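hey so i finally got around to running both of the ones u sent me last week. sorry it took forever, my laptop kept dying halfway thru and i had to restart like 3 times lol. anyway pasting them below in the order u listed, first the sequence line then the structure token line for each. didnt double check formatting much so if smth looks off just lmk and ill redo it

first one:
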Amino acid sequence: MTDDAHPTQTDRTSTEAVLAAVEAFVSEQGLDWERGAREGEVVVTLPGEHKLKTVLSLLVRERGLSGNAFVIRNADEAHERFYRTLLRRNLRMAGVAYAIDASGDVYVTSHVPLVGVDDAYLDQLLGTVLEAADEPFDELLQIGFLTSMRKEWAWRVSRGESTRNLDAFRHILDTGPQDEAPGEGRGHEG
């Protein structure tokens, strides 16, 4: 394609052309998006299954296109297992990686030179970011926030409140303490 929305090989290094291509791609995919607060930023909302949504910031700069999406806040407990799970997943992901900020909050990040940005790359990037943020979300909650979840469950049950937002975890919350920690001894590498 050689229209303004889809850069040709010769104009892929233009930030304006790449920004237009990113905007055209997310529009064509029917995704919710808006211009970000920073020049060259597109903020895309990716719908999830485990995590309600993942918000991805795509920033077009002269040096390349970077992506940054929040995954989950810093774990309350089991930090070593929590971060080990993320590092193991890093080995299986193409073009993105988990990173943490100064507070320990987890993000998925990416960076590619502008010449590498086309529809195929954007499709792979958005799919990989969504998978990295959404697929392990329940497991990460179980590893890093189990005590808080149990307290929330007990509080809701004691008051007759709905436990609907915790239904995905009923198997570990409704039965009391477990001998086996989530993600261990079940034959998978988190």
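and the second one:
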Amino acid sequence: MATENIPLLTPYKMGRFNLSHRIVLPPLTRNRANNNIPQPHAIEYYSQRATSGGLIISEANGACDISLRCPNMPGIWTKEQVEAWKPVVNAVHNKGGIFFCQIWHPGRVSDYTTQKWWFIGREEDQDDKDTTPEQLKLEDNVSDNYNEKWFFIDREPKDQAYKGTTPEKLKLEDIPQIINDYRAAARNAIDAGFDGVEILGANGYLIDKLMKDEANDRTDQYSGSLENRCRLALEVVEAVAEEIGADRTAIKLSPYDDYKGTTGDSTPEALGLYMANALTNLGILYLHVTEPRMIKVGDDYITPRSLLPIKKAFNGTFIASGGYNKYDGDKAIEESYADLVSFGRLFLANPDLPKRFEINAPLNKHERSTFYIQDPVVGIVLAPLTRSRSYNNVPQRHAALYYSQRATNGGFLITEATAVSNTALGYAH
């Protein structure tokens, strides 16, 4: 199949990086980094999804000590963490991939000053004291159409992993340290071998909350006007760009997101446009933006495509994210709506997603119940990978080496999709 006829599989030059296709693995919280240190299974997870010339963005890495609140999320603030990331980065580079490290500063969730924690589930469950956090966030039957709601809960998870008290407002004198946390984390990411850094300015965390007028209730130079509310975001971007170079610096934004009325903005497009213009002036490499949440239209759920004005205002690589399938992604590239498209759940369930798009192979369905558990195998296990190397539909000898290399004592492998009927005409390999 000619890849030039598939917009998502056309090459693209992103600054110094020559990409072979437009399909991006976005940051996906794995919640499997024990004691905030990346584990060996991360090597398999990321290298499975790496392709020569493909862009991969790591799960969010704490720019500061998040151990009290997020003990299973990775960090990049210590030397030990830097060393643990090196073999993961090397595995991606060995396959020719481009690997960016997302860094975040959770703000209130970085210490004991937070009383509540984000969980996902049905809105009607949030006041159900008999429902555990695990049940709330693992409701699969409400996930596919974005019926789920993000909300805070007042009780701790059963394992007491997350603790909290009464939140306090960020002090003005603490902001320089936060900016320096990002600067140091960016330097650590480069020392670990990452090709660049994506700053998390989305999803209701510190930077995002200050940007949104419905969440920011401060009364200082970081509040009020759009310029003031975006001040911290731009100060962080500038600090990171000074540390590692603007050509290795990026940011992810979600101007349209509003998690249960706590992180919304009254004029999200104006917010996105302001940031796009300001980021252009700083000369960063790419801008990664999330679409609005899906809405129900009749019997269908659709994502309102709203990013084109922001894309036009930004003079750099633009990555669109949120609810995309292959058809939507091809259309976005073909119509210059985006330069690249990130696929979260599809890439998670289909490690060989670019290949599947190329040959129009069936896609595995994601399993939401495995998204955030701590199991190092479940949700990480080798999923069926379409290899397209069985000539005349007959497995070849190299398959013995391919599978045996990935086999471990007690490990669980699943073969590539094997036809139950004659597929020679459509899928000869």
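quick thing i noticed on the 2nd:
The first helix runs from residue 41 to 48.
anyway thats it, ttyl
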